[in-house]
Amino acid sequence: MLLERESFLTTLGEYAAEASAGQGRFVLVAGEAGIGKTSLLERFRDSHPELRWLWGACDGALTPRPLGPLHDIAADIGDGIRDLLGTASDRSLLFTGFLDLLRHSATPPAVVVEDLHWSDEATADWLAHLARRLTSVPALVVVTYRDGELEPGNPLRSALAAIATQRGTRRMTLPALSEGAVAHLAHSRGHRDPGAVYALTGGNPFYVDEVLSSPSASVPANVSDVILARVGRLGDDALQLLWAAAVLARPARAERIAEVAGCDASHLDACVAVGLLAGEGGTFGFRHELARLAVEDAAPSYRRTQLHAAAYTALSRGDDLDHARLAHHADRAGLSAQALQHATLAAQEASALSSTQEACLQYERALRHAGAAPAEVRAELNAGLASSLSLMDRWDEARAPREAAVAHYRSTGHREELSANLRALSVTLWRLCEGEESARCAEEVYVLMRDAPPSEEKVWALNLHGTRLVDAGRPEGRTLMEDALALAERIGSLEATAAMLQNIGWNEIYAGRDGWGQMREALRLSREAGFQRDAARGYTNLYQAAVDHLRIAEYEWCFQEGDAYNQECEMPTFTWCLRASRGTALLRLGRLAEAARYCEGLLGEHISPVNRLHVLTAHVATLVRLGDPSADARMAELRALAHGNGEAYWNILALDAALQRAWLAGSEFDDWDWATEVWQRSSGESAWVRGELAVWMTRCGRPAPVDDAPDHLGLELAGDPLGSAAEWQAHGCPFEEAAALVATGDPASLRRALDLFTAVGSAPGSALARRRLRDAGEHAVARGPRSSTRADPHGLTAREAEVLELLEAGMSNGDISRRLFISERTVDHHVAAVLAKLGVPTRVEAARVSREHRAPANLGTTAAPS
User: Fold this and answer.
1) Domain layout of the chain by residue ranges
2) What is the DSSP letter of 683?
3) What is the mean pLDDT of the chain?
4) Among 55, 331, 382, 803, who pairs with 339 as Cys (CB 3.0-4.6 Å)?
């Protein structure tokens, strides 16, 4: 696939047309190795078969053969030129003979000479001869070369200068691929981190292809061979400088590289000449990260250690120290004390800047060098690592360092430090769906801190215990949380105050009271004060509450802002929580196929058990409503995780999905023991959550009244399913509206239910409505549409079809983002998928294909998640 080369192909076509009309053109095509010069010319050749192609190349593997490219061409054009090559002692006869051949060719000729940078002097003279005389010859000559590999003083420089000044000469330089083009290639080949591919390759097409084709994270062998072949052309001093530059990793001034290498800096010019280093703004650095990695890997290990020690010494002078960089060099040089010192500081800096992944790496590095450090230092590092891993949603990895920190503080009797780490361990275990162990830790925290003097840690301890009591349906939990808020305000902790407001607001909402203002205020306080973790949690909890209480459109801003914020602050644990709620929103809005795809994508990520549980509650219900056969396997996983978590809320949602499956199939529900257990544990849950469970149990034959259920549930429980359907309609929930209509039993309502089930794509729902219509005496019930009539001819999803339509309208990614209420990053992914499925390189081509092969599309509406 040739990307971002359309303009060059078009320009070459214009030059070919001018040449064919009698105005000969000599085209110099420059670009670094692997940039795609040959691919460009091969594509141009394939698209212009009307030209007579004469192809030759200079050979860099051997001592150049005089006029080597002309020998290649002679093999294709007959005895005349071969005879001249074999007998002519006067080159002018040979050069004139070749020019005459071009002038009198029956078909417009196109001459290609590749890799001029490896040319011999005779070839350079021949091409200069052509360039001076080509304007009156109906021929196109295209010569490629690497512009960064001609050393000062190389005679080819003067030849190129002579060619470039001729009237018929044109020049073009091929750039690297953009980050967007690399992302398109990466997505089309299933690579999940296009940013990393671009960072490694700098957009060089050859390197990009090799990295995407390589099964490992190391430098691909083909790339390494190419790079090391260039390294082999260097003298010893230049090689030492190149190794030093590789170890320093970042562009550096010549004096710094020379200091680390212990060599004279003048030899850097040789490193530039072979195309490995580039000099810019007084510094020298590698053109591509892949090249740097290959060079560093190839340096002898003992020499690498020496160079890292020298780099550490050089970089540790001065006041503005880069602790991350110093930690790296000290680590590689085996300087443990220094590595521990700088890695610890670098981890703290990264955490403060929300560079969570970098913080994890630095904490891990510090711990590798902390074997001889005091136990208190190791405990602090373990706690820091656990916190950073937790924010990355790597709770399984966070457990061991957190337990190590708990063990240390338990042994020393440091009450507040022990409480803080026990609280974090309780949350870790909850995230891992180990509810009983989590509750035991929370209880220990409360016992430890209930009689402690006022402090911020006591606030958190009271809050944790209060939350657990509320979750268990015990009213004293609310009082304890209010005590925690009062204490936070009394000691002047804004962070704790904002967090307590958020938790109290959440519990007020789920208790049927108005806690929305408190949650919004908590979010505002956290954002303004820079409490990133609390703000991320605030977005996540507020949006989940909005989805659970069917205020989806009203809080769309919360999802959009929160998703961007969580990614910006590198907090995947809250990103996945928020997106799990998005799956539930899509389910409620009746966008079942989209919800299924969206949740399946989330489940393909590395997410913690509780986030997986959250996603599965939406995914399983979606699969059940679609009639997807994979629902059974997912249901088993959902039940297991909900059971391990232990909270009634998740078990209720799992039971809801199981009851729906039985109801849609028209079969008896077969696990009433489980249903009875969950129902008995549901007394502390909100009327919204408990009421929906009661509706599904009633539909399956076990009435379960809830006195304070909201109207969309309570009306059906009170015998008015038509009123309930109207409420569901007002909330914008078509599947739920249809389910309530089925409960009426009257034919008109059943027909409306059939239409709704069909519209959202619920085959089991449609089949149920048809059965009920036949039971009601309605026998002329239309069959549903065949799936083939809804299929897109290109295999596009409904969302991708929408994006394609907007591309055809000429919209930018920003315009599409605003039209569909999705992030620009999501638009990038959709555009890449559309281009891949249509087999075209650009959005312009995609629009053309769409116009040429237009087919009716059933487009979705409103926003999709990012």
Assistant:
1) 6-175, 180-300, 316-370, 617-788, 792-852
2) G
3) 88
4) 331
Residue 279 β-bridge partners: 284
Give the pLDDT score at 29.
96
* Three-state SS at 278: strand
Interval 486-537: pLDDT, tens: 999 999 999 999 999 999 999 999 988 999 999 999 999 999 999 999 999 9
CA dist 72 to 34, 56, 68, 474, 724, Å?
22, 5, 6, 89, 83
Q: What is the DSSP string of 797-808?
A: -HHHHHHHHHHH
Sorting pLDDT into bands at 50, 70 and 90, what band is 440?
very high
Cβ pair 689, 719 in contact under 8 A: no
750: amino acid identity, one letter? L
Q: What are phi and psi of 825, to 5 degrees?
A: -65, -40
Contacts of 623 by beta carbon, 8 Å cutoff, 6+ apart: 596, 630, 631, 634
Q: Is the pLDDT of residue 763 over 60?
A: yes
Site of tokens 């709770």 = 395
Q: Please state, in angstroms and rounded to a whole number, the distance separating the CA atoms of residues 524 and 539.
A: 10
Q: Is 383 exposed, middle or buried (0-12, 13-18, 19+ CB in 10 A)?
A: buried
Maximum Cα–Cα distance across the chain: 109
Alpha carbons 777 and 659: distance in angstroms, whole number: 27
Q: Are 50 and 108 in contact (CB under 8 A)?
A: yes
pLDDT tens digits along 86-131: 655 567 788 888 999 999 999 999 999 998 988 877 888 899 999 9
Cα(154)–Cα(161) distance, rounded to whole angstroms? Answer: 12
User: What is d(CA 395, CA 436) in angstroms, rounded to the nearest whole number?
Assistant: 17
Q: CB–CB of 112/41 below 8 Å?
A: yes
Just give the CATH number of 792-852. Answer: 1.10.10.10
pLDDT at 789 over 50: no
* Helix H or strand E segment including 123: helix 121-133
- H or E stretch at 501: helix 494-510
Give the residue with greater pLDDT, 727 vs 800: 727
Q: Are 98 and 81 contacting, i.e. CB atoms less than 8 angstroms apart?
A: yes
Residue 861 clears pLDDT 50, i.e. is over it: no
Q: Are 232 and 239 in contact, with CB atoms under 8 Å apart?
A: no
Q: Which fold has domain 6-175?
A: Rossmann fold (3.40.50)
Cα(499)–Cα(486) distance, rounded to whole angstroms?
A: 12
Helix (H) / strand (E) containing 498? helix 494-510
- 660 strand-pairing partners: none
Q: How many residues does the chain have?
A: 866
Given a contact cutoff of 8 angstroms between Cβ atoms, the answer to whether 228 and 294 are in contact is yes
Burial class (CB in 10 A: 0-12, 13-18, 19+), 214: middle
Look up residue 117 and give its two tokens. Answer: 């940078």
Both tokens of 761, joined, read 């794509």
170 has which bridge partners?
27
How confident is the model over 527-548, as pLDDT tens digits? 999 999 999 999 999 999 999 9
Are 137 and 103 in contact by the 8 Å Cβ rule? The answer is yes
In terms of CATH architecture, what is 180-300?
Answer: Orthogonal Bundle (1.10)
Burial of 545 (0-12, 13-18, 19+ CB in 10 A): buried
